[in-house]
Amino acid sequence: MTTQTLAGVPVERDAEGFLTDPSLWSEAVAVAIAAEEGITLTERHWEVVRFMRHAYETTGAGPNVRLLAKASGVSVRELYALFPRGPAKTAAKIAGIPKPHGCI
Amino acid sequence: MRRIVILGTGTGGTPVANRLRRALAPDDASIVCVDRDDDHLYQPGLLYVPFGRRTLPSLTRSRRAQLHHGIDFVEGEVDAVELDARRVRLADGTVLDYDYLVVAAGARLAPEETEGLTGPGWMQRVFTFYSPAGAAALADAFARFNGGRLVVAVLDTLIKCPVAPLEFTFLAEDALAKRGVRDRVEIAYVTPLEGAFTRPIASQRLAWLLAERGVELVSSFATASVDGAAGRITSYDGRGVDFDLAVVIPAHDGPAFVTRSPGLGDALGFIPVDERTLQLPGHPEVFALGDATGLSTSKAGSVAHFESEVLVENLVATFDGRPPLARFDGHTNCFLELGRGEALLIDFNRDVEPVPGHYPGPVGLPLLAPSRLDHLGKLAFESLYWHALLPGHSIPGVASPMPRRGKRLSMLRHPAYAGGPR
């Protein structure tokens, strides 16, 4: 666990860089995390990121890739093009929510 | 007289029905179970079918015969659940009204979700042992396999029994060695996970065991397509794995009727019940357990078993007008076959990952270590399944809350593991 300043806000992040408190997230924080991942957020990225936050707020967890694709209407192939290092994980990180688990 | 309808009579639905029948007087509650056929398959046994060690008939019994006296069994396909009207419509037009609904309809394989998988080569050089027909077809192909590249590929993160593909790999390696052709075979294990398993300590141990058997571990591999004609699996990031014989675990969806029932499930057909009470938010009269839920717990028989105790307690409490106080902790318990007469046991829950030690207490079966005793435990479990688990009897020492005694929990505070992924 480390404390960092992202977009001028002090936030705590776990060993893999996920925010430990999703309420400290803002769009500016998202832009900063995306930059670390080498991603410049386009409107299509934002659709996915907003969907992830909405899913987290309603179900308490980020969806896996296939559920994300089915529910958001962005195909799995396009999701991997947008987030090459793994859509569910990377989009969750940028959305400031915990790492999704396929299973425990 | 209130009516309880249970959809699905597998590892989850059967013990729920039997426990409810004992807990509620026949004058107070009727119990109706629905399933599409009368064939109850002991699913853990599918693992042995490709090696000719078990046949499908020996793993199958009547569903109806597993249900206690006083439980009605309706054979039929569910069309949809109408949550607001509190009724279930069957495909043949039958309508079942309910006061309480339990969805225990499992998960279904969705091979069509992976590009090319059901195209050329499917069931010829690309198989799955996750379906009865697939396991039987693989038995023939595996018996003839005497050289080349064997690839075991997990195609999605959300699958039933996440240890079964590893077990298949270890048993195949052992069978090929015994056949005397091991040196003519390359084996690769392909997974979308970052390692051999989800949690760090078990992942490290299992990666070591794979390496020891000369199995290549290909991780973080998100399969985009399977080309049976060319013998190649391709990932979304452009990597390729070649095979002569592929054994894949297809993606899974929830029951088809869930996606036809507004408000019941998510876009894949899994039911987002509360992970502790197993009730559907907004519908305290609707419960779900086992593979059909959208919970982050493993889709494993032990989970359905442990959930059944919690679900029955909460349904009976709700029935009696009391608050549902029982809580499921995510307890999961899996015997993992390693071949060579050994197995490895893992026991964990939402908060405590698999660690070494003993289960269910300091004097018990070894955890996370190859053991002859664990292999015998796995074989003995089949009898317990039919005679204790399905009837809903308590198994001594095996209860829903995960035991902490006997586990080396101090390992979780070790700097190598602390602070990592949950």
Sequence-ordered SSE layout with sheet pairings:
The complex is a heterodimer of chains A (104) and B (422).
Chain A: E1 2-6, E2 9-13, H1 27-36, H2 43-59, H3 65-72, H4 76-82, H5 87-94
Antiparallel strand pairs in A: 1-2
Chain B: E1 2-7, H1 13-23, E2 29-35, E3 39-41, H2 56-59, E4 60-62, E5 71-75, E6 78-82, E7 87-90, E8 95-97, E9 100-103, E10 108-109, E11 126-127, H3 132-144, E12 148-154, H4 164-179, E13 185-190, H5 200-212, E14 215-218, E15 223-227, E16 232-235, E17 240-242, E18 245-249, E19 252-253, H6 256-259, E20 279-280, E21 283-288, H7 301-319, E22 332-339, E23 342-348, E24 357-359, E25 365-367, H8 372-389
Parallel strand pairs in B: 1-2, 1-9, 2-5, 9-21, 11-18, 12-13, 12-18, 13-14
Antiparallel strand pairs in B: 3-4, 6-7, 7-8, 10-19, 15-16, 16-17, 20-21, 22-23, 24-25
Helix pairs in contact in B: 1-7
Subunit arrangement of the protein: heterodimer
Poorly predicted sequence stretches spanning 5 or more consecutive residues of chain B:
none
Tally of extended strands of chain B?
A: 25
- Total DSSP E strands of chain A: 2
CATH architecture of chain A: Orthogonal Bundle
Q: How many angstroms separate the termini of chain A?
A: 21 Å
Task: Kindly give the count of domains of chain B.
Answer: 3
Helix content of chain B: 10-25%
The chain-level structural class of chain B is: alpha/beta
- Just give the CATH class of chain A: Mainly Alpha
CATH architecture designation of the largest domain in chain B: 3-Layer(bba) Sandwich
Q: Greatest interface and its residue counts?
A: A-B, 24 and 35 residues
**CATH third-level topology of chain A:** Arc Repressor Mutant, subunit A
Placed side by side, the strands forming the largest sheet of chain A appear as: 1-2
Q: Return the domain count of chain A.
A: 1
Extract low-pLDDT stretches of chain A.
Answer: none
Strand content of chain B: 25-35%
At the first level of CATH, what is the class of the largest domain in chain B?
A: Alpha Beta
Distance between the terminal alpha carbons of chain B, to the nearest Å? Answer: 46 Å
Q: So what's the overall shape of chain A? A: globular
